[in-house]
Amino acid sequence: MWSASYDILIVGAGIAGSALAHALSAAATARGRPLKICLLERSLAEPDRIVGELLQPGGIMALKKLGLESCVEGIDAIPTYGYCVMLDGKPVHIPYPEGYEGRAFHHGRFIQALRAKAKEAACVEVIEATVSELIECPLSGRILGVRATRKEEGAVEKEAFFADLTVVADGCFSNFRNQVMGKAALTPETKGHFVGLILEDATLPIPKHGTVSLVEGHGPVLLYQIGTHDTRILVDVKNPVPSDLKGHILTNIIPHLPASLHLPAQKAVEKDRLRRMPNSFLPPSEQGKRTKEGVILLGDSWNMRHPLTGGGMTVAFNDVVLLRDMLLDVKDLADWTQISHLLHKWHWARKPLASTVNILSVALYDLFSAQDPYLEVLRTGCFKYFELGGNCVREPVSLLAGIEQAPFMLFRHFFTVALYALWILFTSPRQVGVANGKPVYARPRPDEYPFLAVKSLRVFWTAVVVFMPLLWQELRY
After folding, report:
1. What's the pTM value of the predicted model, to 2 decimals?
2. How far apart are CA 100 and CA 61, in angstroms?
3. Distances (CA, A) of 332 to 136, 337, 404, 436
4. pLDDT digits (tens, 9 = 90+) for 66-78
């Protein structure tokens, strides 16, 4: 059995793994302390996924700190300048603050650009191999490295790869999460699936903006341009998944999209294979004291949020920025006391951004996929809150974009939305009937106020039930 030794071993050459390999190498070399790094990946072929295709402005800022901003160039990436939210056919424009932009692209092209930077980095060895197990010391239980089989013709024997520190970044379907986390492991909560297709030459309501279409009775539909001729559409499908997905999309979803998207969407459904990804939420449990020594988790293997807000890569790159700087200050990577202290600092240093993105992604999804009358009131209030413009748009979108890192700013806006929704409930005209084939609207009458007051209490309690458990999860772990 062959074996090799490194300073740091990284399992998974995806978003986080590739970025960390390059960032550590570049920074360590610049400090005159080069690190020997091994990056293991099951397949170095271009991946084909339906998520991880929108990088928020905060992610672009982190890329620049890592020296990886060139990875969004030369891959037909499309600048994005904000969002357009559609409710009942009515749009509201939610632009990013002036001077900020995100990028949307084919996931595989971006990954290959990141891997190319990792391969170019000094003292980084990128190996195509399938990791089958973590090597554990029989006496101390410490993780010493991994066993893997190279992807070479005729290669069947497992090789041992040893390192002072092993970083597992093998994604949302991690094979090693429970082993690393032990009793601190949490179970991902799946909130449904995104079904993905690519539309050809589609015209979005506002070009170069992500479009969120809120379909009554169903989850949100997310669209953004990922290439000169390609637009990604992600349809939220709740559990249990319909047996006839194509029929469900054609009948229940496409008719409620903007008219310019009907024909491209119909063609895509009829021509393409439907692919789906679980929408999972996994709070970050602190690593170090209660987890396996010698190994840490990074990226979706450790922390996931709903993909609706496109914040996953932004969190991952920010995590790499922080981890890179902290690891370089460690004198001995094999000293778990130092690493454990570092992980505690890292856990709380990442909280302002990670917790903001995590909470916002799930809370916004709950509002946008409203399935009961109280959530519908909150959804309407949220839409009308955005219509107010000014700080009612600028600050929330700065949180979503990863520009602002402030969980309590999110708290303030979320409950301001809840209170504004109650104001709308009492003052806004709502449909009371139909006359001559047209809907008739009227404001609530004074005799309806007692009923609305009771409903208001239920609506506000619903807002508390949506937001506070998410905040508690982020604070307690």
Report:
1. 0.95
2. 9
3. 20, 10, 34, 79
4. 999 999 999 999 9
